Amino acid sequence: MVKLLHTADWQIGKLFGQFEPEDAALLAEARFKTVERIAALATEHKVDLVLVAGDVFDAQGVADKTIHRLFNALQGYAGPWLLIPGNHDAALSESVWTRAARLHAIPANARVCLTPEPVLFEAIGVAVLPAPLTQRNTHTDLTETFAATETPAGLLRVGLAHGSVQGILAEGIDSSNPIAAGRAEQAGLDYLALGDWHGAKQVDARTWYSGTHETDRFKANDSGQALLVELVGPGAPPVVTQLATGQYRWLTETLALQVPSDLELARQRIAGFGPADVVQLNLAGRTDLDGDRRLREAIEQARGKARCLLADLSALRLEPTPEDIDALHADGYLGEVVAELQADQDDPDGVRAEVARDALALLASLLDTQRRNAGAAP
Q1: How many CA atoms lie within 13 A of 238 on its CB side?
Q2: Residue 290 backbone phi and psi in degrees, to 5
Q3: pLDDT digits over 137-180, tens only?
Q4: Measured between alpha carbons, how far is residue 364 from residues 31, 120, 264, 376 in Å?
Q5: Each residue of 215-267: pLDDT tens digit?
Q6: Where are the domains of the chain?
Q7: How far apart are CA 50 and CA 40, in angstroms?
Q8: Average per-residue pLDDT in the chain?
Q9: Top-level CATH class of 2-244?
Q10: Distance between CA atoms of 213 and 370, rounded to whole angstroms?
Q11: Per DSSP, what are the bridge partners of residue 218?
């Protein structure tokens, strides 16, 4: 029996511009650490070969240091690694791969397929048919040659490609770098290892996307995995096991406040975020000024616990109670301003409504601080 470890879409060097610089740096660092985790899993499961199905790097222009760090992360597995370029790191005439070669960064047990010639691992009984991308976008199916490619009798035939299986992925995804549905059967492959889709996904009995090794977006697509593939022999169906690799969980939480008890439930949920969580928090509904203050306190406390937390309060309407207004002493002109800001939250212009909500919260905070300071004065 042959054991393969299938992974893809590492996108080393990826930037996370939506987060604070410190958080973005840690998310980028996790992508190296998870490659180390993959190497450890390959050793633990005693696999015969690791296949990396493209987009190893996020861009051609990553730093030389990044290239060295990536290949150093492979050290935990001494067996063979086979990598192909994807659309982010295509095998251009001058590319991240040619730089890696000049830097002598690629270890002896790693091979980068820059051309589509079969790679034979006769000692383990495997022939790999790679389809590396030589440009970012192509409108021809590079796996079409697999069927006509002969391999020695008795060897397992394994395809390695990066692209979109037609008619399988979400609409609009499969417009470039196409791969025909049914390619594994048509080309007599025992297994087809794919990259490009960032979640683990079975296409057919012999074809899988492994997904990215470390989740990188707020989308429930079963990412943060590698695939352990067991092949008994030519023609036998592969046995595929998903292995968790990711360090962080990316969560989208939408909390709606409609009745008073919803506030405490929301605070409890926010307090439950932990160090492995990257969170997009969306708050909607309505609350009074005291509820808004308590929510903001809960969010700030959670930011000290979660790895990253993005909060969107634009759909949360502030409805000051008469008691709120009295406590703020917002009479006369200030009372008119508060009333106007309340009304502006219903403006059809979403930007104006959000500005009104933020201004109302800021004004309430300033007036509350002023009131507290006045009370503390001798």
Answers
A1: 29
A2: -65, -40
A3: 898 999 999 999 999 999 999 999 999 998 876 655 555 899 99
A4: 42, 71, 21, 18
A5: 999 988 899 999 999 999 999 999 999 999 999 999 999 999 999 899 999 99
A6: 2-244, 249-376
A7: 11
A8: 90
A9: alpha beta
A10: 51
A11: none
